[in-house]
Design goal:
This protein has 384 residues and is an alpha/beta fold. Helices cover 42% and strands 18% of the residues. Residues 22-321 form the Septin-type G domain.
């Protein structure tokens, strides 16, 4: 018998060639209040200054919900020239959000090629979480946005060949939390709880260099208690690959960001303080490298595959409403279905009313029935 086997061990190489040929669609969302370093984090993650460090540009003079001009970046092995192509601004399908006056959305498309492996990455930055005086329902536009991506994918499944489907679903959401001592804002808790039902949630404490060691410990413990009490699900698929863990194994991660500066010695990320300058990569409690490992190096496919769980839940909900809202049903068929369900509901309510009336009529005779039952039992004992 051949000691080398039949070739099953070559399967990883086959998958590698297939993935290299097709590429991967990978979409992340960064959410949080203004000024927490979301743009800087994305630039650090890419190793290049991809996003501009400027306020979101307005669209038609509005600053409610905006999508900037989509930009496509091509990074060749992170060492070649970076070409930039501007596309027309996307203005359709946003009527639900334009009047909210709460959030700002900015989407950037990035194409990354590294060692012949291609990733079509979309970064959606959501700003101004909790910046308003009234933050009631501030999370609704985010959930609608994610659900819109699910609907788009669902529509493609019914109309296109699977190999031609473009995956625009959100695979991971990095939620930035402001370091407010030892407590978490209520708007952050409710927003995270909503997002955790739609995609993989990874919470981070931004600007954690403003916290002392004691404050970090208390904040971490309080945050974990809130996650458990509020039943907020977070992504923990990285635990199987975790080797060099910090003191805080599970999220939230503590993050310190700084702009990329290019020197003769490579990229340097320095943060300026009144007392001096420090390289953020040397800060012991900065979890940026762990977060980068989760998002790109070790768990990218885990995030994509686990998105199927959230999508299946959405699709099951769509199937449940398909009977009444299905595109194949005519207007008359929908009308008949509604009439049938209304009639069934009315008959069910009528049965409940009759059952209650019967119970009310039986109450006066219950005492007599019990007395007769006791007499029958005594007669039976006497005969025995």
């Amino acid at each position: 018998m051949d000691t080398e086997g039949i070739g099953i061990s070559n399967l990883p190489n086959q998958i590698y060639r297939t993935v290299c040929k097709k590429g991967v669609d990978y979409n992340i969302m960064v959410v949080g209040a203004s000024g927490l370093g979301k743009t800087t984090f994305v630039n650090m993650l890419m190793g290049k200054n991809i996003l501009e460090m400027e306020p979101f540009c307005s669209m038609d003079g509005k600053k409610d919900i905006e999508i900037s001009a989509r930009k496509s970046y091509h990074l060749m092995d992170f060492s070649g020239a970076c070409s930039l192509t501007d596309f027309d601004q996307v203005k359709n399908n946003w009527n639900d959000y334009e009047n909210s006056g709460l959030l700002s959305f900015q989407t950037t498309e990035i194409t990354i090629v590294e060692k012949k492996f291609k990733v079509c990455m979309t970064v959606t930055e959501v700003d101004e979480i909790g910046d308003s005086v009234c933050n009631i329902g501030v999370w609704e536009p985010i959930l609608k946005y994610i659900e819109t991506k699910f609907k788009d994918y669902y529509k493609q499944e019914t109309e296109k060949v699977k190999s031609k489907i473009e995956d625009r679903r959100i695979h991971a959401c990095i939620y930035f939390i402001e370091p407010c001592g030892s407590f978490i804002k209520e708007v952050d808790i409710k927003t995270m709880k909503g997002i955790s039902q739609y995609c993989n949630l990874i919470p981070v404490i931004s600007q954690s260099d403003l916290l002392t060691d004691t404050e970090m410990s208390i904040l971490y413990e309080n945050f974990r208690n809130i996650l458990e009490k509020q039943e907020i699900g977070i992504f923990e698929g990285f635990l199987n690959n975790e080797k060099d863990v910090s003191e805080y194994v599970l999220p939230p991660f503590f993050l310190v960001t700084a702009q990329n500066k290019y020197t003769s010695h490579g990229i340097v990320r320095e943060r300026i303080y009144p007392w001096g300058i420090i390289d953020v990569d040397t800060i012991s409690f900065n979890d940026f490298n762990r977060l980068k490992s989760i998002l790109v190096k070790n768990n990218l496919f885990d995030l994509i595959q686990s998105t199927e769980h959230f999508y299946e839940n959405f699709r099951a909900k769509e199937f449940s409403s398909y009977f009444l809202d299905g595109p194949l049903m005519s207007h008359d068929e929908k009308r008949v279905s509604v009439e049938f369900l209304d009639k069934l509901k009315a008959e069910t309510e009528q049965i409940v009313v009759l059952r209650n009336n019967l119970a009310e009529k039986r109450k006066p005779y219950e005492k007599t029935i019990k007395e007769l039952e006791k007499e029958l039992e005594e007669i039976g004992k006497f005969k025995i």
